[in-house]
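Session log. Operator J.P. requested a structure for one protein chain; no other inputs attached. Running the standard single-chain path with token output.
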Amino acid sequence: MAERDAEPGPVLGVDPGDARVGLAISDPGRRVAVPLETVAADRAEQAIAEAVAERGVTLVVVGHALSMSGRAGERAVASERMAEGLRTALDVEVVLHDERLSTAEAERNLRDAGAGRNARKAARDSSAAAIILQSWLDSRSS
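Structure written below.
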């Protein structure tokens, strides 16, 4: 499926995880991504559907957990399954985007900002989703 980049509106970023899923959202002009929330993995599809409906999301970007070599391991396959389930459940386009090192970058950014251990844990997944989404946005603007 070709991405409908020309369709206006906010984009939702998703950082899939076994226990928690981070969500981030862009502005309608698709320039800046900000963390939105972290939800339990077992209610991620519902939370994503609610965000799409309530915020006018026109596209969903799911982090694709490729290995450093670029190969699709177990985490990447889980991301692919999540994306496929969202494509079935939602009436917006869902795409995968490389998320290598996004969680490590989110952790480093939070630590550099002076966030304590508990604050970092609470914000890590949604911050990683914002990093994934910002990377996707930046790749479209060049």
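Operator note: The chain has one domain: 11-141.
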